[in-house]
Design brief:
Two copies of one chain form a homodimer. Chain A has about 325 residues and is an alpha+beta fold. The first copy, chain A, is built from ten helices and 13 strands. The first copy, chain A, has a seven-stranded mixed β-sheet. In chain A, helix 3 links the parallel strand 4 and strand 5. Chains A and B meet through helix 1, strand 2, strand 3, strand 4 and helix 3 of A and helix 1, strand 2, strand 3, strand 4 and helix 3 of B.
């Protein structure tokens, strides 16, 4: 299914089994359950379609985000699946579950957050649905279009492993908030903003669509997502620790120190950065090499001494 | 927004105001917020896209529906927006919020209900999303395709008002369950099944797409939905009481008697039938005339003595 977490996979397999029984398959369907998004072919165009949910108490805590942040991040998180597939956004539908505490003012704030993200992404909200409920939930479905979708399954042995965008920042920001630590420093502010106001890398995704063989967006942590890419492509993905460390920003390194954590762990285990991990050979200047693709299976972290350890699974709400 | 209830309109207007500020509008967008679904133009085809949520305690009570029913009705309810627009389904995405009580067995049952509906609709589940949460929620986004979408806004003075499918059954079934009354009789079983296992009228919608001027699906009750059709088309919709009564099934009339309610009120005020209300002139044999379209505004119920009373608004979770 689109954008599920690694550890949910038993449930997803169960769903696949129960859902997959017979039934007509529309001739337009090219990619179903199992990638960042479903893909339909319509004439020369490919439609890319995905859904993402943001639920209070699971994906966010209202002590640390405003309603405007909730609106912003729900749309950016959903649009990130379009970025990973190399698609241009057509629009979004938002289904809101609203508890009684959500006043019209708060709802307006949430919508303004969505609208700001929609403008920055070129992905307008074109409809939706409102429902009562006990916990605030924003389920966002996004539709995009491309000529050739960039799937998780295209990585080949011999490819470089590329990181596009930054990793570890969002998790570092979330840890600062969760631990009630000071967030006024330059590095701290940067990390907290990365968590509150992530950005889907739509333009980079479109550019990757022309040169990369495969891509996935980093929603559940680099370790787990690298493993998903490896499984879908039936290859082995090697993340080189030294290269990953050099790719991390001073903000992640600084905040990791304050948190007493390794910067690399924030990148590998932390999610919600919405950077892109891609595999290919004709590397654009803005993509950083952090590893390589080999024959084999699984995702491994390789130390500078040649030691290797298994990566993933990523963060799991069901774990 | 697609498929919102009448009384939610203050909130929807607020959202429209907050969301509508500037931003690029993709050239493909033809219909945005305000109809049963959003519409994009892609080559010669029109893409029709909608979302619907089914939340425990709001849209269903687990005392009266099985997990399999929840799966079935969530997909049929969402697909009904495609029927109203005269679109052929391409597929559905389901985003599930799962409380801890949902065992793998219950999840399997829910998925089997979705799969059964998907087969009957020709609308496969092509992806989705899982999240933890405190109340069971199924948010279903559906995508369809057509040559010419049937909008709410096309009704013209002089059109007939057509009912396609049956109304009042689902509300009658729900009332029986809610009041703990016997449901073993033939009429009672029929009403309860209509509520538990509604059917989106996809084939009828496709046929209406060739002859009708406008359509809406009856999710919130005939009264409120007639009013929505009138508002979108900027006309007056007259429902003729005598004709509506003659269009009601013996099951609705029988159960209304047992409930001590008027059959007509079950049809006008009760939702979740997913019948279609359409306006046009070249009436197919399976569409029943229940009224007409005039110059003016609003939706009125006209008695056989010529008396008129205002219809709507429909059921409102926020009221």
């Amino acid at each position: 299914m689109a954008s599920v977490n690694v550890g949910e996979r038993d449930l997803v397999r169960l769903l696949e089994r129960c859902l997959g029984r017979g039934g007509r398959r529309p001739p337009e369907l090219e990619v179903g359950i199992g990638d960042d998004a479903a893909v339909f072919r319509l004439g020369a165009a490919r439609l890319v379609w995905s859904v993402d949910a943001s639920v209070e108490g699971v994906h966010f805590d209202r002590r640390w985000v405003s309603s405007r942040d909730v609106g912003w991040r729900s749309l950016e998180a959903a649009a990130s699946d379009l970025a990973a597939m190399g698609a241009r956004p057509l629009g979004a539908l938002a289904s809101l579950v609203l508890p009684a505490w959500v006043t019209p003012r708060e709802l307006g704030e949430l919508a303004r957050g969505q609208a700001a993200a929609a403008r920055s992404l070129g992905c307008p909200l074109v409809g939706g649905n409102l429902s009562r409920g006990t916990e605030l939930g924003v389920t966002t479905s996004v539709l995009g279009v491309c000529r050739r979708p960039l799937c998780r399954s295209g990585a080949r042995p011999g490819d470089e492993l590329w990181l596009v965008g930054e990793v570890g920042l969002a998790r570092a920001g979330w840890e600062l908030l969760r631990r009630g630590m000071a967030t006024s420093g330059r590095h701290e502010r940067r990390c907290v903003t990365a968590w509150r106001r992530p950005r889907a890398l739509i333009r980079r995704g479109l550019e990757l669509g022309r040169v990369a063989h495969a891509a996935i967006d980093l929603s559940d942590g680099l370790g787990g997502d690298a493993r998903q890419l490896a499984e879908a492509s039936r290859v082995r993905v090697i993340v080189e620790r030294g290269r990953l460390e050099r790719a991390l920003s001073p903000a992640v390194r600084g905040v990791a120190l304050a948190l007493g954590l390794e910067a690399c762990e924030l990148a590998l285990g932390g999610g919600e950065d919405y950077a892109l991990l891609a595999a290919g050979r004709r590397r654009p200047a803005w993509a950083r090499v952090i590893g390589r693709v080999e024959r084999g299976r699984g995702a491994l972290l390789e130390g500078s001494d040649g030691s290797r350890e298994e990566l993933g699974p990523g963060f799991d709400h069901f774990g």
